[in-house]
Each structure stands twice: as structure tokens, then as C-alpha cells.
Write a structure and sequence with these properties.
Four copies of one chain form a homotetramer.
Chain A (H helix, E strand, L loop, with lengths): L1 E4 L5 H13 L3 E6 L4 E6 L7 H5 L4 E5 L19 E3 L2 E3 L5 E5 L6 H13 L4 E3 L17 H14 L2 E5 L6 H4 L5 E4 L7 H10 L3 E4 L6 H12 L6 E5 L17 H8 L4 E3 L1 H5 L5 H10 L4 E5 L11 H4 L2 H14 L10
Parallel strand pairs in A: 7-8, 7-14, 8-9, 9-10, 10-11, 11-12, 12-13, 13-14
Antiparallel strand pairs in A: 1-3, 1-4, 2-3, 5-6
Chain lengths: ~350, ~350, ~350, ~350
């Protein structure tokens, strides 16, 4: 960390800063520029409350130099992380495809989609059982029953189950039914939940918060990892901006940024970001071209919709067309596509 | 809700929309403009999944007309809400002043501030016991002990206690120590926690999520209210924008907007929004001038800091100067200031 | 500026940085922390293209320490700027009130408002003659005729004229009719226009760009000032955020931030930010309470509207009520209100 | 447009709305829902000032149904636009590659890059001659001389010239040197400049404003087109968000959105968005995979840099590697890559 000293500060005021650092076992490295004095801080900053520094009269600003995460940082595992869940590797050369309905509504519904997406290379069945909804009056999901449906259907098709958990109190139950827990955007900084899934040891797909910076997101990942659970992948799902043409703005720059900052695998969710199936194929191809390790996509099973323009509606047929394109791109990008 | 029909849609495609509405017991009101056909939807939309409509080929867009919250809407209580916590009224003519340290560090620290802010009209003692921190390695608060300190100190000074709770599992314990639970920005859409504090019946100060629209915020309030807990006040604490001169951008427009959309009282937290004590007095005056029902302000007890520019550092002395200004503004604004 | 060196850089790569600095006459101050090497750069950085540094392999990031503006910075005139336009002082103890219709439509329309706002203390008549509109088919203003109407009406009422100019080619004409040129949000970084109004010497009200940081805004002001025109006031008019309840989010934090960073006067435009007259009174009071030096407000002259709720519609009667409140607040804030 | 009527409005207040519409030759289509009355407005809304409606007491909100642009809308040319500049087609099956240095510094510098990028399929030479800089003290470009250098070098290599113009007064000069005028993000809503380039008939690359919605961007394009200049391509270059890991957030969702809303070709500028060459290859591939019609990329000619990691630094060698990847992707995406 660097402290920029306010011009015109008295020697006593500067000393006050140095004393504060000293009191916390930190070393200071003072450097006088032509227009500003700068103090480099050396040592373990976690011992120090930044607030205690910011209120000092001679402090103009504090400039962090290091990230606040360690286990999640690239330096921790420069070669990158890959991990297995049953027979699927996340973060390897082979892409990971996750697909399924937005919400689990019935066993029949899930069954239909499962067969179709499995045939297109999907290895994870997704589906919302606990649905965080903006309104308490909207459908909140089938909850436990939803997880059980997912498990049964997935087992029939050789799929793994990924589903969102919204409370630490549901982890124990979920452990019997899911292969990977999804932490949703709204709980991205629910640190108690993050610590709890960390302790559970169950693999985690950590969605980015809707207004979370990449550094904060890695801080969230650190909460999981600091409990000893290193089976974690990050999921870019769009950030909130002023643009309303899409539900969120999918930040595909996050992929190369993450690849340079962390060793964790990166999955992209184009469905929630776009909010419109029409935009999903373009964004899916873009995500893979940008280096994503996989995709989590919503597929609508409504057979009636298959009658309308398939590619646009991302019906099972739309998903098939999209995955064919992605399969074709794999060799150029040094990737393989799952069977 | 209004459905805008895509130009060039066939009659069958339009019929598909009408069938979908009919299947959910909704009535349609078709209106043909010179360039677009529009379908007004009449009835209880909560029965309908919007996704099921959006995927239909003839749907260009859905335009919501009504808000998704009811108990939180102005129409529910046009006269406004005020409620009592012990001898303090929130949402009345008298402003509610909440003050205290950022984090509870020790009983001595809290004791010092408590006496000082009480003398300036504060009726609530604030202080973080459970601290949601971006990094797992940062100080996470004294937790249970922190709540106990707050209670003891508050009781000695005739203050009420407000403190943040970050997990539904802590509510039972907190119930014995706090008079009002604060839900922080990071948990603003932790719906499980919101429902749980709703069920607890303990008064709630609901902070706005860092990227929560006002309508979503009222949706969060609805989660608390739909459990029967109407003792809720909203707390504007800044939203995330591109501007980095302040930690967040305090959205004071939210005050008149809320006053027109909801009956709930509005408290403003200028400290977290600004991130710099230097800006707190101006923002505090502005919040009250804009119609806020109260303020929650961080006061640093460090006696050493009192030596530096008091007004800027928001030491106890800075708080005194600020509250004197606000007291003077009250008569002009039709308010009273607490003793 | 500080250069953070990438960990693991070779000595040659670091030398490459030092050579680059040396080649531009800059001195380097190397400091080795426990985890990062940092290079402080001393000297005139305007000689150096930052891009040339950023591409060097050992550069992790560049951290600016100083602002890029000089004449606009607080240090240039710590006592603050005030300047006269005819008999009105901008930036003094007395508030400056600017008011008038959104667009100049006819002499009668402007005449009606002028008399009314003058009676409420307004000293500037505002009104759009050149209207930057999102669509080329929307009303673009009366242009030259609009300026002439403003001048004639203003002269009859002892008012000064402020109006927006959107092209450097219109300045010569405008010089005969306006007392202050407004640069709108859309031209906030039209540097050619800024330089041109700088050269003209005509006082300038510089609105903040819709996504301009405060530092960039002061950079825009510097364009005007570096041409020798120091008669400039800044106008906060709302920034673009994700929130749609208001047209823009009025950033009132900008007032104390500007007061700490620059000596230039600060005017607030609550009308454009809010987009709804209903919210204007609350935001106007808040702006003054936060320390603004004046307000520019749209007043609708439609006499028919005066029949409806005056305070909400900001009819002339609404303006009168609002200005009465602000007049009453002045003594508490150490201000005077104009006659 | 739809007018949502405030609940509780009197019949006279509703009549006021209907009268206002009638006075502007617009027809109203009233529809009463269970909770709100809605008025559909039929006819040419450009005759009506929305402000005049918004102030009416019975108006709750106005909901636009149609876009405000016509020539730029997809419906105007459903088959898409492609146009020729000399022997290059923009918007065709073949990708358009534009490349060159950020700023024109000298003829030698440009010469070096030109040969290299031409060999990689670039058909346009880019380079800044008029540089809009945040600070007036930063290098503002070689201006006229810069354009002349670009022309001479481009002619030697069979390249076309694209360069930014920042004032309507420079168009006449530029017409002799450039094949396509770039309008930069800061002038994206400088409507006077847009009209002027529209009148000039010179092909235009219109960058998106840093906080411009897609609809506003198409409104900017409409300014050019309404002057009869249909040779216009749109350039996504990143929008301003809260994320600071990249200079802007490249909004690749804008590609499919634009493809559904407009017939204009879409070019992507990953260099300015990312702000770091390291991220350019991933974003370039992603843009093409999402359906962009071309790329405008900055290539650094510094031969010294070629010694460092080429792919990361986007030296000419980095550009070659990137364009090889894109060439390989073309067949899968139904594209051809230029010779």
C-alpha cells in the first residue's frame, strides 16, 4: 500500500502516520517527489484498519498495490486449476457444458431437456430449485423436491447436477443431491453462505455479483477457499450498467482479466445476462472464443416453441445448432468438445 | 402489463399469445396502433411466468405497468408509516439520529462515543458486531460479544441498539440485545435472511443494495412485510457508479422518489456512501433537506483526532457541529430535533 | 505517478522502464517492498506517453498521484473563485438563481416566466435556443431567434441571459445576446468547443458530462481556463447510473468533493437530473444544504398547470414556494438570498 | 407511446390529457385495466413535446413503444447494409480489418506498421491525428500533418485511411486525406458534428458514446443518415461501468442487439475498451465470434517491444498471431478473411 501525503502537511502530521504504521508493526518507506510525499507501507497490512489511517489529517489517499486475496490469486497456482467432479474435469482442455431449464417445474419437463442436452455434449444438468425472486409473490421454486427431481433425471442420463443454494441451512440436504452448488449473483457477498459452502467441501460455481468488481469477486472466492475448499469455478453472468437492451451487460473482458489474475476456471452464463434467447448464441460463441472453460445455458423444453424459429428461441434444437458451432470452433482455440 | 407485438407477426402467432394469457386466467385487451399492435393484460400476473411469454415469437417486449410490491407501496398506507421502538418514533415529525463507531472494538471505545452522541440528540447507538468484509482475512467483528457490549453501553446512556445481522442463524441471539436489526447492502437481496427477520418481528433497517433499483429495494422490503413485520425503515447508503471520488454515489433523489412510491420511513447513511468523513456534514444536511426521516452516522471516538480539524474528521466534536446545523434547519423543514 | 513492477520481472525488464523514463527526462525512485517493487516517477509527466510505459513487460500498473489539471485545482486559488457578470456575483456569499423554460418557444412564453422568476430572486433567465436532442426529428430550438427573444425579455426584467451553445461557430453570434454560455452534458468533452469558449472570454457554465468523473470534469474546465478564461462555474446535472426512477442520478456528493478539489463555483441543475418536477423541490433544498452556490431550475409557464398541485408541477407558484424555503435556509448555511 | 394514468385521477384530469393529444393531432385509445387506466397514443408523436405531457397531473408515466430512429432501424433495410469504399466492402461477408498506431507520431512510425498490418489482411490504416485528450496539456496530435502522413503511407501500401475528426470545421480539409471519418466516443452526441459529417457524404465510423444506450447510439446514427449519408458503420468501443480492471467494459452483447435493431454494419474496437494489449486477442476473437463485421485494433510499431512477449504486447507479431486465429475462425462463422 502507498500513502499519498497531503501537500502542506506538517512534520508532526506526517509523524502521526509513521507512528500509526509503527504501532501495527509496519515499515514505512518515505519518498519525496517534486509535488507530493509518498509513503510506501511494507509488511502485513491485514493488521491495520484502513479507516484508522484515512482519518489522519495528512493522508490524501491510500493506494492499494496488492490484492486482498491470496489463494485465489494466479501466483498461488500459476499453472491454473482443474478439478474433477466424478468423471468430468472442470478447467481442463475439454469444455464443460451445463444446460437445463431455468426453474425445475416437473420431472417430465426436466426429463425432456436432459436427454436433449446430453446428446449435445452437456455433462451438467442445471435447474433452479431454490429461486431467488425479486418479489416474494413470484414462484420460489420446488425447493427440496426440485433437487430430488434433478438428481433422479440426471442419474438416468449420466449427467451431474448443479443447482443454486440460497441458505447455509440447506447445504446438508443439498449435499445428497447435487454435485456442484451454485452461489447466485444476489448471494455473491453473502459471506456466511460462502464460508459454509467452503466448509462443506462441495464443488462451487460462484457467480459474480451484479455490481461486483473482479477483485471483489476473487475476494468472495477467497472466502470459500480459505475454508479449504479449492473446487471452485467462477461464473460471469453479466453486470449491471446503464444499458437496458439486455438484462445485464455480459462482461466478456472478465475472461482474459481473470485468466491473468487467478488460476480458477471460468464458466459463462449468457442466458441470464442477455435476458433474451435471441442473443444467447452470439454470446456463447464469444465467450468460448474469449477463453471461457465452459457455458451454463438455459434450454426451454416447450415442444410447442420448437415450431417457431429454433435458433432464436434456444429450444433444444437451438441448443443443438449452437453447440455444433462451438464444437467446430474448439480445434482453432486449442480446446476439445465433450462427447 | 402491456405486450408489444412484433410487426409482421402472423395471426396465429398473436393467437399463441392470447392462448397463453387465457391459459393463466388473464384477460387481454388488444389495441392496434398505426405501427404496432399492443395487448393490455388484465388480471393477476403472479400466475404467469414472464419467461413463458417472452419466448413467444410475436412478443417484441413486455412493459410492466404495475409494481410487483403491494404492502410496501404508497397506496397501502397513503398517510405514511411511523412506528415506535421503545420511546423512539421512526417516521414521525421528529428526526431519528443513529450514531456510533464503525466497528465495536471494546467497551471503552463504545462508552466514549455513546455519551457524546447521546448529548447531541442521538437515540440509537450503532456499531458493527458482525462485519461483512470483502476479504476473509480482514477483521470480522466481535460478533456476539460486540452485541453484548452495545447493549450494556446503550442501557447506561438511554440509547437503543441497532446492529447488522448477516445470517438467519444469528437472529435468535441478537433478539436479546438489539432493538433494531440492520440488513446490510450485501444482504439486500438475501431473501432467506429477509424472510427470517420478517418472521422475527424485530424492527428492521433495510439498507439498499449497492446496485439495487428503488423498485427492487421495495421488493426486498416486501419480503420482510409479507411475513407480517411492518416495522421497517429504508436506508439509502449510496449506489455503485463509475465515479470513484466517493466510495459510493449517495442517491439523494431516492428520498423524494421513495416518498412518492412508499409509505416507509427513510434513513440516510452518509458515512458509508462518502467513504470520507470530510464529505459527511454536507451530505447529512442535504439528506435532511431532501426529506430524510433520520441519519445513521459513524463517529470516531479517537480522542487524538479531536486535535485535528474537528468538522472534517467527524470526531465527536465534528458530530456536535453537524447536529447543531441540522437542529437549526428543522423548523424550516417542518421537523423537530430530538433532545 | 507510481509504477508497480510485475513480480518476477527480470533486471533487464526493469531497466527498460528506467531507460524509458530517463529518455523523457524523468527521474525514478525505486523502492522494494516485501512483495512488489515500486518506482516513483518524478518530473513533468506530460512529456511521456503513458501508453509507451504500459506496454512494457515489467509494468503491472501505473498509479497516478497528481491530477492532470492545474488552473482548476484548489491549490491554484485556495480562497475560492468568485466573479462578476454585470451586477451579479457568481461564487460569492449570495446564492445565484437561474430559472426559465426548458426551451424558448415564443416571446410571450418567456415573458410570463421572466417576470415571475425575477420576483422570486432569479437573476439569470435560462431557456434553450439550441437544443441537443437525441432524435434529429425532435424540436431543435429556435436557435438565433431564441437567443434574441431571451435578450429582449431579460433586458425588460433586469435579468442576465444564460443559454446553451452547441457549436464553436455560434459563439460569435451568441456573444451579442448571452451573458453566460452554457456547455451541455453532451458537449462536456467536446474539447474544440471548450477551447473556443475559452478563447471567447465569455463566462461559462460547464455542465458535467453524463458519465464524466469529477477529475475528467475538471480536465474539461482546464480546457476553458488554459485559454485564459477563468470565468467558469461548474454545473452538476446528474450522472448516468443503473437507476431509472430518475432520468439521471443527481450526484450531490460532487458538491463537497468539488469544494475540496477546485476553487470554481458550483451550480446545481435538479430539473434535468430528476426528469420529474415532483422531485425538484427536495433536490433543490438538498443542493443548497450541501453547499451549492446556486441553482438552475426549469419553470413551466403554462398558466393552466397552475390550477393543479403547484408545488409538484413547479409552475411559477411552485418555484415561489421552493425559493421561499431556500431563502429561509440561507442564514443557517451562512448564505444570503438575492432580492 | 402509452400513457399510464395515475390511479385516483379525476375525469377532468384525464380529459386534460386527451385534449393535449387532440391539440397535437394525435388519437387516443383508452383502455381500463383492473388497476390502471392506459391511453395508447396513435399518430406522429414528433409533433408533441413529451414534457408537455409529463407535467399533467394525471400522467403517471409515459412508455415509449417505438424507437425514435427510422433510417437506422432494421425495418428500413431488413436485408442489412453493405457499402463500398474504393475496393473495400463494409458490412459484407468479408471481415474488415482496420489497424495502426494509436497516434500518428511520424511518417517512419506509420510506415513500419502499415506494411506489417497490410500483410495481415488489414485494409484500413488507422491513426489519431486529432486526439481528444482529457487534459489540455497532453499531446493533441499532429492534426493536418498527421492526416497527410496517413494518406501518403496508406497510398504506398494500398490501404484506405480512417481517422478521427473532432470539429465540423476540419471536415473540408480531411475530405482530401481520409476515406472514412471516425467520430469518437466523446463526440458521439455532438449533433452538430454528426449533421456536418452527414452533409459531407464521407463514410463514417460512429463510435458509441461512453454512456450511450444502444437506442441513443442509433439516434446519433440517424443524425448522419437524415442528412442523406447512409455510408455509416457503428463501432462498439466499451461503455463506462463500475469495473476498473479494464478501461471500459466492452459490450459485446451490443453486437447481437444491433443486428436485431439496425441494418448498419458493426465494427469492434477492443484496444480502447481493454486499455491493455494483453486482453486484446481474447476480445478480438470474441467480437468476431459474436458477429462483428470487422475490427479496429491498435498496433504498436516499437521494434524494441517485439523482443518481449509478442502475443501479449500486440506488437506487429502479436497482431499477426491474432489475425491468424481470426482467419481460421472465419469459415465456421460463414465469413471470409481479406487477403
Amino acid at each position: 500500500m502507498i500513502i499519498v501525503v497531503k501537500p502542506g502537511s506538517t512534520q508532526e502530521q506526517v509523524q502521526e502516520i509513521l507512528d500509526q504504521l509503527d504501532a501495527h508493526g509496519l515499515k514505512a518507506h518515505v519518498s519525496e517527489g517534486s509535488e507530493r510525499m509518498i509513503i510506501g507501507v511494507i509488511g502485513d497490512k491485514s493488521l491495520l484498519s484502513l479507516d484508522a489511517l484515512e482519518v489522519l489529517p495528512a493522508v490524501e489517499k491510500l493506494v492499494p498495490i496488492m490484492e486482498s486475496y491470496k489463494l485465489a490469486s494466479k501466483a498461488f497456482r500459476p499453472q491454473g486449476t482443474s478439478f474433477e467432479i466424478k468423471d468430468v474435469t472442470i478447467g481442463g482442455k475439454e469444455l464443460v457444458m451445463m444446460a437445463g431449464p431455468c426453474a425445475v417445474e416437473s420431472e417430465e419437463q426436466v426429463e425432456t431437456v436432459a436427454a436433449q442436452v446430453r446428446a449435445c455434449g452437456a455433462r451438467f444438468l442445471r435447474g433452479g430449485a431454490y429461486k431467488p425472486r425479486t418479489s416474494p409473490y413470484a414462484f420460489q421454486g420446488l425447493e427440496k423436491e426440485g433437487l430430488q427431481i434433478l438428481r433422479r433425471v440426471a442419474d438416468r442420463h449420466g449427467l451431474l447436477v448443479i443447482s443454486e443454494i440460497t441458505s447455509e441451512n440447506d447445504i446438508a440436504f443439498a449435499a445428497d443431491y447435487v454435485d456442484m452448488i451454485q452461489i447466485g449473483a444476489r448471494n455473491a457477498q453473502n459471506f456466511r453462505l460462502l464460508s459454509a459452502v467452503g466448509k462443506s467441501g462441495i464443488p462451487v460455481l460462484l457467480k459474480r455479483g451484479i455490481a461486483e468488481t473482479i477483485d471483489e469477486w476473487l475476494g468472495s472466492a477467497e472466502y470459500v477457499m480459505s475454508e479449504g475448499n479449492y473446487k471452485i469455478a467462477l461464473c460471469e453472468r453479466g453486470i449491471r450498467t446503464f444499458e437496458t437492451a439486455t438484462r445485464s451487460t455480459l462482461d466478456l473482458s472478465a475472461i482474459p482479466v481473470l485468466k491473468s489474475k487467478t488460476h480458477l476456471p471460468v464458466i459463462v452464463d449468457p442466458s441470464h445476462a442477455a435476458g433474451k434467447a435471441l442473443y444467447v448464441p452470439a454470446l456463447s460463441r464469444a465467450a468460448i472464443a474469449a477463453g471461457a472453460d465452459g457455458l451454463i445455458i438455459e434450454v426451454h423444453p416447450n415442444p410447442k416453441l420448437a415450431l417457431s424459429d429454433a435458433a432464436q428461441q434456444l429450444t433444444p434444437e437451438g441448443y443443438r445448432i449452437l453447440t455444433d458451432e462451438i464444437r467446430a470452433m474448439c480445434p482453432i482455440l486449442g480446446r476439445t468438445y465433450p462427447q
